[in-house]
Amino acid sequence: MKPKFAIGVTINGNEVRAAFLSLVRGKARIKALESTTLAEPLEAAKEEASKESVDSLNSLESAFDINEPQLQEEESYSDTQSTEQTSENQNVSLIYGLLDRFENIKANIAINSPVLTVKYDYTDKSVLQKEKNLKKRLKARIDIWGSEEDEARRTKYVNIADDKVLQVDYEYHPPIIDLIEEVNQFRAGNLNLVLMDTNELALVDLVREIYKFKADEITAIVYIEQDFSRVIFLKGREIYHITPIIHKGSMSKDVLEVIYSRIIFAQDQHFIPELNKILVAGHSSRLKAKYYFRQKFPYAITGYLNSKKIESDLRFKDRGMLFSRYAVPIALAWKALQKNVYSSKQFNLLPEYIMERQTLPKLSVYGYVLLFLLTFTAFAFSWIVVQQNLKIQQVTRRIESIKTQLASNQTLTDQVLSYDGEISDLENRIALIDSLSKGYNETAEFLKLFNKTLQQVGDIWITDLTKGGKIVQITGMATRRARIPQLAEALGGANLKRVSRMSFQGEKVFSFQLDLSTDKLKLDTSLHTFDELKMADGKAGEKAGRKSSPGRVAPKANGRAESGNHILSGSKR
pTM for the whole thing? Predict the structure, then answer.
């Protein structure tokens, strides 16, 4: 699986820290941790810019003054402008140099909202809903809502413990965004700005991912930087309280005592129960804050913010001190690696126009269906065209091959046709010879003899006549038993196989079966002309007509019928 990369950058005053993380098969891993110092804090540069705008307004008021401006003021203004430009360029170079220590690959980047511009407040959900409804009614009546100052700052809300809402007031477009975008130009657009969050809320999300909490467990996160500090209280997994900013940091000697007093004050003022766990982050390792708070709160579990879930290429030998120092950039980079970084449920202070620029256009379900149908249709038509072209090429090649074969085998075709005519002539001659060969009219002579014998004997009906080889099997019925041996004797000594008595159409008859060998018969199998055969058949018919008794109809047996003593049908095998 291709790894995914993210960079978390925090700028607090003039201190910059960055964490480079990768995500492979759902596991985050720290690749590198870096830090640097800006030439000038971004907030100071912004204040100078605001002063410059005020000075320009003052100059407009005296634009029609007849007195010439003093040369010294012009020189000071130009010196200030050049100094600001130089510091901005230095900051861009420093940030670029910091990020250049990481791999120059495409990565998501997350930044922090400046600490001094973030304000926290608390309200109830019911009050918040009333305020929202009031704003909606006012917006319906007023065309312009808010002022330029309102456009520079925005407010978002986060649900916290005890059915309360944390109100986050922040700067909409801080200078760090412009700084990152300038650096991104030198990185060939490989930085994808996806997230802006506050230091405190990013820490809370990381702590929720790392640790397990009971429902009523109280946790305090002590976050110390160089110039400021803050304490975040959690009840279970939810935010319970965030103290106002403490304007003392790791550079102050009494910062730990001040933080301790703020914790006691918050517990008393906001009814926070006894602490069960204390996690220290930031520059707390310099001050040995872990041991200080362990003495002050002996019943609480105290330690540096650390995690075994996030692996690292670095060998942390300080038991969490380095991890806790870079906890905020690590938390930002970890959040930038999540799939739902652009989700509406994800807390993100990044301006909407930047998020829309970073995200791909979204399609609805119907859009995806239409896109699939268009793709499938284009592929299907292309496939059909290719298959038809292949068939056409195959048929064309086959036709060319057949034409070539026909041209080369034309003479052979003529010879085959002549031989075919000769073969047909020979087959006709052979058939004629076979028809004139010995024994061709043996069956006809036998039937004549058999019919003549039946007429002589009389009172016999033949129901079946079967020939197999040289044996003829005769099956029939006789009204008199004596007629059966007479018939066998008249046929040249046929073998009597079966005689049985039965009733047929109300009369008693004798059913019999004879086997006759054709070798015992004396048949005239010589060749005769057509006229001779015709004359012989005519005489036999007249003689039989005189001797036969009229009006006797043979019974039907096995699908055949005889009239008188004549055989009307039989079977030959």
Answer: 0.57
Does residue 393 fall inside a structural domain?
yes
Report d(CA 290, CA 321) in Å as an integer.
10
Helix boundaries (H) for 458-520: 483-490
Instruction: State whether 346 and 405 are in the same domain.
Output: no
CB contact at 8 A, 153 and 170: yes
Domain limits for position 149? 4-56+72-362
Q: Which tokens hold the place of 67? A: 């007195």
Mean per-residue pLDDT pooled into runs of 10, the chain (573 residues): 84 89 86 87 58 45 43 46 67 84 83 88 72 52 43 83 84 88 85 90 91 90 91 92 91 92 92 92 84 92 86 71 89 86 70 75 75 90 93 92 83 84 88 66 78 85 84 88 86 84 86 83 51 49 45 38 37 33
Give yes or no: residues 355 and 372 share one domain: no
Q: Please say which residue of 362, 377, 396 terminates a domain.
A: 362
Q: Is 192 helix (H, G, I), strand (E, B) or coil?
A: strand
Are 333 and 418 in a shared domain?
no
Nearest Cα residue to 282 out of 350, 212, 222: 222
CA distance 240 to 118: 18
